[in-house]
Design goal:
Elements lengths: L19 E9 L3 H12 L1 H9 L8 E6 L1 H7 L14 E2 L4 E2 L6 E7 L2 H15 L3 E10 L20 H7 L11 E10 L1 H5 L3 H8 L19 H5 L1 E2 L5 E2 L2 E2 L2 E5 L4 E10 L2 H12 L14 E3 L3 E5 L2 H6 L30 H4 L5
Antiparallel strand pairs: 1-5, 1-6, 2-5, 3-4, 7-12, 7-13, 7-14, 8-9, 10-12, 11-12
Helix pairs in contact: 2-4
The chain binds protoporphyrin IX containing FE.
Length: 350
């Protein structure tokens, strides 16, 4: 039985919603040297965040690092998070949720875009040719935290103690203070959306548009976004995730959208919401937001606590081990706990 005397410091998962964010996703090139470079770079990320953040402390620069399933195995840690697996694609009733490549996520937040951009520059400089950038989306706050559909986005996030309770792992002794995060980049068909009346848009979302109040049960459609994302456990307790969605867009690229990012102590809650949205609950009763929003990416990452992230830097080199990613497997079973975990539990297990 593990005794945990002190909860390890998490990464800045629950930092407040900011005016700007960058979602940087990279894949790690083949070979032990690339895996080593990536592993040691993320272990030292705190130094880079301080270098940029200290230059303007009140702009609240934070960076959360997420690690994909294949990358975790390539780093050679002696234990693995129980629920870490590649994002499971969904072939939905009318819409699909694709699974796309991603070994590392850098979720960078600040009140200023230049702070995000500068940190991104330093991270990529440090990673060098060990990685390939597969997504680099600059998110911005749209008026009073609205998405580009015009609705306030994030209102029903948990607050107070419930924020950490929803976001941070509390049931995996080796990974307390960690989190899981699912990201999806959605593009919107704004022309089609704007052809709906405001009242019809409100029935799609499940809240009023101007003043952001949840629709009354009597008029809430079963296929609204809010209905399908209000999920409970077997005892009827509501299950929460922590979202920091941002608007993004480029008229030159011809796309505007919402970058969805949802943290949770287990990805199963977010996966249940995705099932409800894409397959429907009951099946066929799918989320109407998808008639105006197309998922173009889908990734799942494990977010270690700050201590575990730093300790990854002490793992032995991948040289001599086969670091070629395994093909995706259905086996997501947790470690049986019999492996030596000393170097990853570190200080909080004393
Ligand atoms: C096109 C992408 C999306 C947009 C534009 C969007 C927008 C919104 C808006 C406007 C709300 C209502 C205000 C609020 O409580 O935040 C909301 C609620 C919510 N959304 Fe999304 N969302 C998107 C994708 C997702 C996805 C992929 C998930 C989960 C997998 C999700 C989970 C939730 C949850 C849990 C709520 C709160 C429901 C409640 O308890 O009232 N959203 N979303």
């Amino acid at each position: 039985m593990t005794s945990v005397s002190r909860f390890p410091e998490p990464q800045a998962v629950t930092a407040p919603l900011t005016e700007h964010a960058v979602f940087l996703v990279v894949t790690i090139e083949d070979g032990a040297a690339a895996a080593d470079t990536a592993r040691t770079a993320i272990a030292d990320i705190g130094g880079l965040v301080r270098s940029v953040g200290f230059r303007s402390l009140h702009d609240g620069l934070t960076c959360v690092v997420g690690i994909g399933s294949d990358a975790w195995d390539r780093f050679g840690a002696p234990v693995r998070p129980a629920h870490l697996h590649p994002f499971v694609p969904i072939e939905g009733y009318r819409h699909d949720a694709p699974s796309t490549p991603g070994d590392l996520l850098f979720h960078i937040r600040s009140a200023r875009h230049d702070m995000c951009f500068e940190l991104e520059r330093l991270i990529l400089e440090r990673l060098g040719d060990a990685v390939r950038v597969v997504d680099d989306t600059a998110g911005f706050r749209y008026f009073d935290a609205r998405d580009l559909l015009g609705f306030v986005d994030g209102t029903e996030n948990p607050t107070g103690d419930e924020l950490g309770e929803a976001a941070y792992i509390d049931a995996e002794p080796d990974f307390l203070g960690g989190s899981y995060v699912i990201t999806q980049r959605y593009t919107h068909d704004l022309a089609a959306w704007q052809r709906l009346s405001t009242e019809e848009q409100e029935r799609v979302i499940g809240r009023t548009k101007i003043d952001d109040v949840e629709l009354d049960d009597a008029v809430m459609p079963a296929d609204s976004h809010v209905s399908l994302n209000t999920v409970t456990d077997d005892d009827g307790n509501e299950l929460d995730i922590v979202r920091f969605n941002m608007a993004f867009g480029s008229y030159a690229a011809g796309e505007v959208g919402t970058y969805f990012i949802g943290y949770a102590k287990s990805p199963e809650t977010t996966e249940l919401m995705l099932q409800n949205m894409f397959v429907g609950n009951p099946p066929g009763n799918v989320d109407r937001i998808l008639d105006f929003s197309t998922a173009t990416s889908g990734c799942l990452f494990f977010v270690p606590s700050s201590a575990t992230l730093a300790m990854l830097g002490d793992l032995p080199s991948a040289a001599g081990r086969d670091t070629t990613p395994e093909p995706p497997s259905d086996d997501t079973s947790p470690s049986d706990g019999s492996l030596s975990v000393g170097s990853l539990r570190g200080e909080y297990d004393r």
